[in-house]
HIG1 domain family member 1C-like
Amino acid sequence: MSSNSLFETDEDVAQANKLSRKVRESPFMLVGIAGFVAAGLVGAYKYRNRGTMSTSVFLMQLRVAAQGTVVGCLTAGLAYTMAKEYLFHEEPKSNTRAGE
């Protein structure tokens, strides 16, 4: 183990690097994940005050809201990427690594 922590492995560091790279490449992915978590937290709070609604119907509506948030953020990210590439004529970054 090359890291200083007893509990952090090289694989954990690699996963953190991969996540940070993905966030730089696609910032709306992070917004989508945050929206998904926010929908879950709001749903957990509202679960207590759902009234006479059955649990299965409430969870179905919560799932649709969470998925809608993620799909909306992915769509916004795709529109941003397309606008950057085609309207502003910025070259997309190549996906090749320096060693290949």
